[in-house]
Structures
1.
Amino acid sequence: MKSNLFLIWLLFFTAQAYAQSSGPTQKDDARSSAQSAKDLVPLPSVKSLTPSQVSGKKLFVQRCSVCHLPALPSYSTYGPVLSGDFIISLGDTFVYEQIMRGSSRMPGYQYTLTSTEIDQIIGYLKTLQLTKKD
């Protein structure tokens, strides 16, 4: 029984150490270094959005926010922190293709999202305003 507990503890400790030492960095992708997790992107109220942007917000929160928004201000994100200015600088075509095809770090959604849904996400992302954390 003691050896089983030791093995469980050892596996847990090893997994924790591995997760801390081998996590992705923002330097892995040149475009992902545009903003850091110290930047905050408050989500706009549904009241200030068009119906299309509301649909985009719902899709973004369901499928994208886990990688593109920090859970807490002190956390880092797996993908770049997204804001309207960042999306505009990349251009709609690039963002559309990135969502469709994905990359080595991001899944493609060509089989699960329609063109309209991707356009709704892009429209919503343009409403996000970046604020700096003190």
2.
Amino acid sequence: MRRADPRLTSTDDREIAVGTDGSETAAQAVATAAEIARRYGARVTLLSAFSEPGAAWTAPRTRRSGASAPPPACARLREVLARAREDLTAQGIDCGVLVDEGDPADVLVRLAEECDADLLVIGNRGMQRRVLGSVPNTVSHRAPCSVMVVKTT
């Protein structure tokens, strides 16, 4: 007799990752991830990338930590992620944050694997610092889980 996959029967283990950089496209992806999380009782992990060598990342529950003040772009990203996390928490959604330095597509794929995501939600426009469409294209081909590309344009 085959056993049921516990990921399909237990709401405690459902993980939705969502890529965000603070753009309107990413905000729509976060909203979609939140809707799915509410429907299925899943946890949401906000994923993001930065590309400022030597930058210290100081947001809670992130992979990177440091004592120095972050550069302006990192400070803006930290604010975006904190605000998104607060909004999701206010909606009753368990929410975490993972951030790493590097190419946005590579970082999203790597962090989705780290958080053992069942689903990775991204917008259909590329994250900042990339050519339009290249992040969604790369992520959809390399992600370790199902990918939902939210049409925002």
3.
Amino acid sequence: MSKNKSQSVLIIECLDPKDPGSEGDFLRHMFKLMQINCDHERINTQKEMLDLLRLSQHQNIHITTHGSLDEKERFTGLWTTDGEFNINHFASLQGKLRSKNIVVTACKAFDGKFNKAFVELTFCSHFIAPRESVSFISSIYFSHIYYHKYFINNKSVSTVYTDYIDIYKNPYKFSLESFESLKRKAKNPN
């Protein structure tokens, strides 16, 4: 297994007893086959998620949980057993995820507000998440393509994402936000 943290992934998983399986278990097995080091942490609380994000030395972090939705089916945060992890939790992550790649497979997590605030406050390099509801199998499918191209084919995050859009036609509506693109937009708002 690789000891290089850029060639490793932290999997943060918050399971609901009704889930059809563990995405984290699948990912851990997939990374073992790829010979990519990973740490798989199961959490229950907002504090556990915050602590893992704040303290992680991994360049790649994969968050698998559910999207919390309001009565109009709009995304409000990441589900944990003690409530949702939302924009209000980001303050203590200020600059803590600089240059890290974040993949979230929670339904509707790329909602325009959450992803932008997350990237702006944490300084993460890339944030990838679905714009729509996504099934367990769809999350696995996307993750397999993404990590294979990133680790095995050694492509950049933006190239992997572009390939996913062009080749696979993005059937699960994953979107990408990058720190660099937000900086460019801030300099040239038009």
